[in-house]
Design a protein that fits this description.
Elements lengths: L1 H22 L16 H4 L2 E11 L4 E14 L2 E10 L4 E10 L5 E4 L3 E10 L2 E12 L2 E13 L4 E10 L2 E12 L1
Antiparallel strand pairs: 1-2, 1-10, 2-3, 3-4, 4-5, 5-6, 6-7, 7-8, 8-9, 9-10
């Protein structure tokens, strides 16, 4: 009987965590009146530079991050090449291909993204949700990314990305992206 009670308590803990996580999401339409409008294709063109941090779920900064981005329009898509350098010396490259689907909404793909990133935009906000294959200690794990970008002015975007696995918060990445 005690084992059954422990299993029930554990199940309730998991379900409760999932419900809390799913109830806390913000809808991008809440920002529809916020200016300046986030013109994704205009902002992500040419050279950009990002600086930021990765914080654990406790708020401790684990790594500083620097990223050089080069973005161009090609064949109806925005191609963004990102070259990351982390404070521990690790370097990483990611190439995003962002295009509009048949419904006129943006979708994005990258080599280390499972499937397509779903994108919504309104006012000064841009939100991408996707699963990233994250390299950890020599293996890969799939991590859910809830990526929010906020257009501050013509040259600056604040980017906050919340990371989770099985509905549990792992940490977040915060960047300032500046057009050169």
């Amino acid at each position: 009987m005690k084992i059954l009670q422990k299993i029930l308590n554990f199940t309730l803990l998991i379900v409760g965590g999932l419900l809390l996580t799913s109830c806390s999401s913000i809808n991008v339409s809440e920002y529809k009146d916020q200016k300046p409008d986030f013109d994704f294709e205009n902002f992500f063109s040419g050279e950009l530079e990002a600086n930021g941090v990765f914080q654990s779920r406790s708020g401790k900064i684990i790594k500083k991050i620097h990223c050089i981005m080069k973005a161009e329009k090609k064949d109806g898509a925005v191609i963004i090449n990102e070259d990351f350098t982390y404070s521990d010396g690790v370097k990483e490259h990611r190439q995003w291909v962002v295009k509009k689907n048949s419904e006129g909404k943006y979708v994005a793909t990258a080599g280390d993204v499972v499937g397509e990133a779903k994108i919504e935009s309104a006012g000064f906000a841009f939100n991408m949700n996707y699963v990233l294959k994250l390299k950890v200690d020599g293996s890969e794990i799939n991590v859910r990314m809830d990526d929010w970008m906020y257009r501050m002015n013509d040259n600056t975007v604040i980017n906050k990305t919340r990371m989770s696995k099985w509905g549990f918060y792992l940490g977040e990445v915060t960047f300032t992206i500046v057009k050169k």
